[in-house]
Amino acid sequence: MPEAALSYCALEVQRNDPERFLTCLFAPADRREALFALYAFNQEVAKTRAIVSEPLLGEIRLTWWREAIAEIYGGTPRQHAVVQALAEAVQAHDLPRAPFDRLIEARGQDLQPEPPADLQALLDYADGTAGTLTDLCLSALGGVERQAGIARAAGTAVALTGLLRALPFHAREHWVNLPASLMEQHGVGLRELYDLKPGAGLNRVVESVAYSARAHLAEARSLRRHVPKRALAALLPLTLAEGHLKRLAKNGHDVFDTSLGEKSPLAAWRLSWMALRGRF
Asked: In the chain, N or C: fewer CB atoms in 10 Å?
């Protein structure tokens, strides 16, 4: 798809989240822009921690988005490219407001200096962020049966996989989203992680989180019969997450292996094959 033919939101997703951009191409044409708008909104709130110098400024930014969402549902969306696209998606597909507020609230946890206390806390964060985003995308694609359960399982799997992939980058920024209880159990210290010199225990922590990601992926797929082809695009990120998890397991769950950052030339082919078969 040539860049000249892409909307602002589509370009933002293509540049900043190319894997999700690929999955959007498998959505019905009349729903594609809604997905681009949702993913662009997600990028706006997800990057909050990375672009502010202190938590208070992050809270101000998230408050701006809370107010922007309220104005969309009040019929007076503010002049902002993503807000305008989001307003169109909300109106065209009757998207509920609550998930937007829930996603913004969950992103507030990014501003906390401490890692999640335990695995359950991390799962709650994953559900609140990517699970909620998946729920919105499914709604934009017409909704499905058992939507809440599918969105929670799929979003959690994708979020956990993404957090593991981003761990080296986050560690450089002194931000770790691994369960504190697991790090303590396996003797992983924050200082060593921040210095990019973790011990062997980190691989065991990563293995535990990856195991949970695979379990949630399997749960989502067990509900596949409830997902019509028109809604597949919202769940195709699972196909790519599975590939990343397999590569991670193959290398012993070493997230600092630079080969993990290489793009797979077969990603588009895998998505096409799964979509053709009505699977994710």
From this structure: N
Q: Which two tokens stand for residue 65?
A: 């988005």
Find, among 146, 28, 106, the residue nearest to 154 by Cα: 146
For domain 3-276, give the CATH superfamily.
Answer: Farnesyl Diphosphate Synthase (1.10.600.10)
Instruction: Show the tokens assigned to 164.
Output: 């593991």
Tallying the residues shown for the chain, one arrives at 280
pLDDT digits (tens, 9 = 90+) for 49-108: 999 999 999 999 999 999 999 999 999 999 999 999 999 999 999 999 999 999 999 999
Domain ranges within the chain, ordered by starting residue: 3-276
Distance (Å, whole) CA 145 – CA 153 = 14
Tell me which long-range contacts 223-227 makes (C-beta under 8 A, separation of at least 24). 223/146, 223/149, 223/150, 223/153, 224/279, 224/280, 226/144, 226/145, 226/146, 226/150, 227/144, 227/150, 227/280
Whole-angstrom distance, CA of residue 147 vs CA of residue 4? 35
Contact 240/19 with Cβ under 8 angstroms?
yes
Q: Give CA–CA dist 196/242, Å, rounded.
A: 26
Beta-carbon-side half-sphere exposure of residue 194 (alpha carbons within 13 Å): 7
**How far apart, in whole angstroms, are the C-alpha atoms of residue 204 and residue 132?**
28
